[in-house]
Amino acid sequence: MSDDYRQMWKDLGLDLDAHDALLGVLGQGYQQVFLSQQDRPEGMAYFDFVMSEVHGLRIKELLDEKAAGRKIVGSYCVFVPEEIVLAANATLVGLCSGADFATEDVEKLLQRNTCALIKSSFGFKIGKVCPYLESADMIVGENTCDGKKKAYETLGTLVDNLYVMDLPQVKSENGNALLKAEYRRFKAAVEILTGVAVTTESLKLAIRTVNAKRAAIHRLSLLRKADPAPISGLDALLANQVFFYDNPARFTDSVNKICDELEKPIAAKQGVFPEKTPRILVSGCPQAVPNWKLPMIVETAGAVIVGEESCVGERGTRNLTDASGQTVDEMLDAIVDRYFKVDCAIFTPNPDRLAHIQQMVTDYNADGVIHYGLQFCQPYLMESIPVEKVLEEKNIPCLRIETDYSMEDVGQLTTRVEAFVEQLR
Ligand code: BJ8
Q1: Model pLDDT, residue 84
Q2: Which of 97, 155, 287, 311 maximizes ligand 1 atoms within 8 Å of its Cβ, making it the mutation to test the pocket?
Q3: pLDDT at position 139, please?
Q4: What global pTM score does this model have?
Q5: Residue 337 and residue 176: Cα distance in Å, rounded?
Q6: 244 Cβ partners below 8 Å, 6+ apart?
Q7: Which has the closest alpha carbon to 99: 157, 160, 55, 137?
Q8: At the N or C end, where does the chain have fewer CB atoms within 10 A?
Q9: Spans in the chain with pLDDT lower than 70
Q10: To 5 degrees, how large is the angle CA 97–CA 102–CA 106?
Q11: Among residues 237, 219, 226, which one has the least CA distance to residue 270?
Q12: Relative to the CA of 116, which ligand 1 atom is closest?
């Protein structure tokens, strides 16, 4: 990354030394995990470039947008509707992070047994190493799991632009009404932030833009049905992660280009892993950049990941929004309908997720499921038990993993994953 960005980072208030250290580790990890893979699709060069510039060029683009009068909205959850943000002339960026940072300081604010995802987000704020967070004009928190809910109360003391969205926990009429009311309240808040009213035209265009981005990633997912697998799980996860940072139209084009490229090897029965390689579906907590630990272990153990039942994956991107509404109100209702289907484990009961996991096993010809739970994440760890049970009933092997962002358990995880992969052969 160019040194020209140092002044930009300084102006954003980053701690340059700490940020240098973070980028050093990120670059090294990327080299080891991604660039060492064989026969990657040529189209992945785009994602390599995005990652090499993730704190550089993309931040500069966002700051240029701000200079031109656009606002930046940061989010920690796939329930924050990008359609509304875009329609009000703002850009949405993901703020979740996948690496431990400033943990000692974080544990002065949050109890130790908080999940790594929440701690990491705090660490990036306290350690002053996240240019996305520092560029955001509005930071949206959401009342999902208890950890996040309570953590946002504390985050509100660290930032002056936190907006908290209430979210239902039950898929009931009342729950639907709450989401409707909250999305309208959010629309009003974003309109105040940008000074731009959402119109029928702008909302329709925004829905189409986000639909196109989701459709492209669906297309990539469907290509992963092929055996031999045309793309590694690591590379597919990376595309799903970049979904949260990149310019939407450019992202859509780049993913579609990879899909075009993959059609040839699929037709020729060529892939990045040999045919009959054990195929794994990963299900559970989101894996934010640079959390590549589990897929690295799985694919080094001789299996291939063929799908992610995760918010950084199919849970977050499936289902398009109906863009046929004739008024802002009709389209807002369509947006609510689309998001209300997201089957996060914070919902109770949550039978849709169990059904979706089984559906994905069938759709992607998976031989087994690894349930990925972050330590101290009650919703997903609790739900991993019914997930395992329902899969066992269908004779689908399932391995439940509970981990964090540290590398301390890599040896132990590798042993368990290798044994699981052997069982699938
Ligand atoms: S819609 S999954 S992005 S809330 S890992 S912080 S659940 S204790 S991230 Fe999520 Fe929205 Fe749901 Fe998706 Fe809590 Fe668990 Fe931590 Fe988590």
Answers
A1: 98
A2: 311
A3: 98
A4: 0.97
A5: 8
A6: 93, 94, 96, 312
A7: 55
A8: C
A9: 1-3
A10: 85
A11: 226
A12: 16
> In the prediction, which pLDDT does 3 show?
60
Angle between helices 233-242 and 293-300 (to 10 degrees): 160
For the purposes of burial, counting CB atoms within 10 Å of the CB of 31, is it exposed (0-12), middle (13-18) or buried (19 or more)?
Answer: exposed
Tokens 């959010």 belong to 186
Q: Taking the alpha carbons of 169, 172, 175, 180 in that order, is the dihedral positive or negative?
A: positive
pLDDT digits (tens, 9 = 90+) for 2-15: 568 999 999 999 99
Say if residues 340 and 178 touch (Cβ distance below 8 Å). Answer: no
Q: Residue 168 corresponds to which amino acid?
A: P
Q: Are 101 and 124 in contact (CB under 8 A)?
A: yes
Query: Rounded to 5 degrees, what are φ and ψ at 373?
Result: -115, 130
**Quick one: tokens of 293?**
């630990």
Q: Within 31-170, where are the H helices? A: 44-52, 57-67, 82-87, 103-109, 116-126, 131-135, 146-158
35 alpha carbon to ligand 1 midpoint, in Å?
A: 29
Å from CA of 286 to ligand 1 middle: 7
CB of 296 closer than 8 Å to CB of 81: no
> Of all helices (H) and strands (E), which one includes residue 284?
strand 279-284
Q: Output the residue whose Cα is nearest ligand 1's atom 2.
A: 344
| pLDDT over 70 percentage in the chain | 99
At 4 the pLDDT is 83
| Dist CA 31 CA 85 (whole Å) | 34
Measuring from each residue's beta carbon to the nearest atom of ligand 1, which residues come in under 6 Å? 77-79, 115, 117-118, 144-145, 147-148, 285-286, 311, 342, 344, 346, 374, 377, 379-380
Q: Which pLDDT belongs to residue 372?
A: 98
User: Ligand 1 centroid vs 310 CA: distance in angstroms?
Assistant: 10
